[in-house]
Amino acid sequence: MADDNVAIALQALPKHIAFSKNLARFVKCNLSDSTAQALTLEQLCRFSSIDIGAIRLDYSPVQGYKALRTEIVNFHQSFNCHSRELSAEDAVTFCGAQEALFAIYQAVLSAGDEIIVMTPSYPSLVNMAKSMGVVVKEVALKPEKQWQVDIEDFKGVISERTRMIVLNSPHNPTGSVIDSILAEQVLVLTQQYQCFLLSDDVSQASNYLELALAHRYLDYENSIIVGVMSKSLGLAGVRIGWAVTPNKVIVNNLLAMKAKQSICCSKIDETLATIALQSSAEIIAVNNDIIVDNIALFAAFISRHQSLLSWHPPKAGTLALVEVNNIDSMMDGAENLVKKSGVLALPSELFGLPGNYFRIGLGQKSFANTLEKFDKFLLSITTDRL
């Protein structure tokens, strides 16, 4: 009798997902949540007279509904300073930002290409490139510079072999930003080397300090920006992300990649995303107030535990890194924390940064309750160690 067992390769989950999954049975609250506060479906639908129940559940267009793509373009133009006139034809919708990033990498990169990525980073920005045989040159964000970068950091790694510069501002996981001045400098550098420019703008709207974060990347033909419903808008359950580019060849390549993956997005999600973007100013204003309140709460929390914890508050976005003093392993410390208190904190090692840091998320209304659990855990420690 033939052996029915067929050998298959075991695929590894991304480290941050695997870490959370392995400890899921202990988790009661997430101190590292990357999103702003979510609305319920009922709350979101109050912004529109659309009858969700009357939607015909057939396919949506591969590129995404034009009404949604128009709102996406308007959304980005409201935060930035492009002189180029953009239209719905410059946008492609995806089932989240992850699919958008995957499609972009597949559409413009090949094995042996070099890209520049700010690190630490959302893991996919590095891992997807390496899995394709792409060489990753890192611009390392450093705590002594409060995680900020400057143009010399990019000039130090760019070369004639550079195919793409990948930006992320506000930055995951540090909370640093690329301001308008640096954005212009990077754009000029990108044009000088005639490479692609990819900007992960998923949290750009979380600009509660009203900093100068506007850019004009999309005035450059070989630029792409990525957005999503889950971060500043807090609508992670609406599985819509997108890419916007003035390059028609890239648009066509993205459509080809999407057709090989999801083919199209959910018609329900595209409708909900349209409603949310039409009401984005109101949603974001509420969410930004929550983040500001939570930053103040955590600043006071740090003051009470300054022998153990320190941080650089975020300049924008929902995230920051917290350093833990007097600890041998943040991975072990985070595991101990969640098992004893139910509080999940993701170590920076999961995002490519060794050391005793964890990511903190500041976007949730429940943050004060999570801090209370974290505080009880710290006060229960008999030694001055996590």
Structural class: alpha/beta
Structure summary, number of beta strands: 13
Low-confidence parts = none
Percent range of helical residues: 25-40%
Q: What is the mean pLDDT?
A: 96
Question: What features would you describe in this structure?
Answer:
It is globular and about 60 Å long. It is an alpha/beta fold and 386 residues long. It contains 12 helices and 13 strands.
Q: Helix and strand layout, with pairings?
A:
Layout: H1 15-22, E1 29-30, H2 41-45, H3 66-79, E2 91-94, H4 97-108, E3 114-119, H5 123-131, E4 135-140, H6 151-155, E5 162-168, H7 180-193, E6 196-200, E7 223-228, E8 241-244, H8 248-260, H9 267-278, H10 280-304, E9 309-311, E10 319-324, H11 330-341, E11 343-344, E12 346-347, E13 357-361, H12 367-380
Parallel strand pairs: 1-11, 3-4, 3-5, 5-6, 6-7
Antiparallel strand pairs: 2-8, 7-8, 9-10, 10-13, 12-13
Helix pairs in contact: 3-9, 4-5, 4-8, 10-12
Write a brief caption for the model.
The protein is an alpha/beta fold and 386 residues long. The chain has 12 helices and 13 strands. The mean pLDDT is 96.
Give me some keywords for this one:
13 strands, 7-stranded mixed beta sheet, 386 residues, 12 helices
